[in-house]
């Protein structure tokens, strides 16, 4: 259940508070400008503004619903119960305390045990959890770029955050039934990446593909901008996994180091596979490899040792590379237009990380919480506990099924009121028709290059 405690005396730990706010800001930078730049550079020029703009919209929309009700639905008082007495699905949207409460308390999401209070106010925790919620639909967006209606996106993001994201977050992190069973997700491999991948793939199927000409030729308009966004994503992940012990302790350092180790291993693996298969290293391939490593280590960062992090990185690049380059070219997979391959880089990689945690979790890697150094350790199959693999499979199955079914229903309902995709004329023109703006206005299509003296 959610625990609220007050620290006696001098309750504020300025170091913990500073790190938690910094870590949250790192994660926020992953979305804006990180994924805004990555998406804006990776798409065709006519979609650059729209792709980046939808990132900024989602970030703002999620914050509004988060402070008003979605935080409470993700981490608040239990509301709907799972049949059979397994626990709660979701928290009550009505707050028991204000999201802006500045008293001597912090709400600690925990399904494992009663946790001690933290040395900062609840506002810090609300902000930290918000940036995780915000990046999830933004990752989903990568599957449906180049055709999803902006109006539909405006409606979809707050509803999806309310009814889809909150259920996964509460079930695993907020004291809900999956966490109570013993399913673990250190920093969002299931709650964020698996959810966004399968929701994105479902949305791509429901909305339909891009125009044939765009699908056949969708060259990035600026690879250097894409790399800049990818770099912000990589470094920002320090806050993603380093912030989840909720304190500036040794476990935060382990999470950060494991994150970068796994990511480097994955990037190198993807590049090596590209060279062996195609004879050339690819920038986009390297970015995809980087993402698979980041995703796979996310559910495992504080539970595996350094060797486990490297293993996860290598496997997390290899399997998505295979599904992208082999399975992704089959007729069945080609029917769904997943623009940036989110199902591979986030979906498959999240399964590698989540199930891999069940295999590689080292009981000596102890996750410390709070001011009293209360600890949680997980034992994986490699260390004698196969049951953790079963639990991780349960968690993955629930997140996949719930997101596929929930996203399908949500989009069908939205489609009753607004079109889910732009009309053909708008799809042909892109940014100028949608926003009246272009990413690179100088010497744009149809403009004359000025002659000296004009």
From TrEMBL:
Report the membrane topology from the UniProt record: Multi-pass membrane protein
The transmembrane segments are: 18-40, 52-71, 125-145, 152-170, 190-209, 221-240, 252-271, 283-303, 309-327, 339-361, 389-411
Is Ribosomal protein given among the entry's keywords?
no
The alphabetized UniProt keywords are: Ammonia transport, Membrane, Transmembrane, Transmembrane helix, Transport
The answer to whether UniProt assigns keyword Transmembrane to this entry is yes
Primary localisation category: membrane
Q: Which Gene3D superfamilies does the record associate with it?
A: Ammonium transporter AmtB like domains (1.10.3430.10)
Q: Which residues form the Ammonium transporter AmtB-like domain?
A: 18-440
Where in or outside the cell? Cell membrane; Membrane
Give the protein family. Belongs to the ammonia transporter channel (TC 1.A.11.2) family.
Concerning NCBIfam families, the annotation shows: amt
The name under which this protein is listed is: Ammonium transporter
């Amino acid at each position: 259940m959610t625990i609220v405690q007050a620290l006696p005396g001098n309750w504020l730990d300025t170091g913990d508070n500073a790190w938690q706010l910094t870590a949250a800001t790192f994660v926020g930078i992953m979305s804006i400008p990180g994924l805004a730049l990555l998406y804006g550079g990776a798409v065709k020029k006519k979609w650059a503004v729209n792709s980046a703009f939808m990132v900024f919209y989602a970030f703002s929309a999620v914050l509004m619903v988060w402070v008003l009700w979605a935080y409470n639905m993700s981490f608040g008082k239990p509301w709907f119960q799972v049949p059979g007495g397994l626990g709660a699905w979701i928290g009550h949207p009505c707050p028991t305390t204000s999201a802006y409460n500045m008293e001597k308390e912090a709400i600690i999401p925990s399904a494992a045990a009663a946790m001690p209070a933290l040395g900062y106010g609840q506002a810090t925790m609300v902000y930290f959890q918000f940036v995780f919620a915000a990046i999830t639909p933004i990752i989903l967006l990568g599957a449906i770029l180049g055709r999803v209606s902006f109006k539909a996106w405006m409606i979809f993001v707050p509803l999806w955050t309310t009814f889809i994201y909150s259920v996964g977050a509460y079930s695993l992190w907020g004291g809900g039934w999956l966490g109570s069973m013993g399913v673990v997700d250190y920093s969002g491999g299931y709650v964020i990446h698996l959810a966004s991948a399968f929701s994105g793939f479902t949305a791509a199927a429901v909305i339909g593909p891009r125009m044939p000409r765009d699908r056949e030729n969708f060259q990035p308009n600026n690879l250097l901008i894409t790399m800049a966004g990818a770099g912000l994503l990589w470094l920002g992940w320090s806050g993603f996994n380093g912030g989840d012990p909720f304190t500036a302790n040794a476990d935060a350092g382990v999470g950060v180091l494991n994150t970068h180790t796994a990511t480097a291993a994955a990037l190198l693996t993807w590049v090596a596979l590209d060279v062996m298969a195609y004879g050339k290293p690819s920038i986009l391939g390297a970015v995809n490899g980087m993402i698979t490593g980041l995703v796979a280590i996310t559910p495992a960062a504080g539970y595996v040792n350094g060797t486990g992090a490297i293993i996860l990185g290598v496997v997390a690049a290899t399997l998505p590379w295979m599904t992208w380059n082999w399975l992704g070219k089959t007729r069945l997979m080609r029917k769904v237009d997943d623009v940036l391959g989110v199902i591979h880089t986030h979906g498959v990689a999240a399964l590698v990380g989540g199930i891999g945690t069940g295999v590689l979790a080292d009981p000596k890697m102890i996750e410390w919480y709070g001011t009293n150094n209360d600890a949680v350790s997980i034992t994986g199959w490699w260390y004698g506990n196969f049951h953790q693999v079963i639990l991780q499979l349960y968690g993955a199955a629930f997140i996949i099924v719930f997101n596929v079914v929930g996203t399908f229903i949500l989009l069908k309902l939205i489609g009753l009121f607004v079109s889910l995709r732009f009309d053909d004329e708008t799809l042909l023109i892109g940014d100028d028709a949608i926003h009246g703006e272009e990413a690179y206005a100088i010497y744009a299509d149809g403009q004359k290059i000025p002659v000296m003296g004009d």
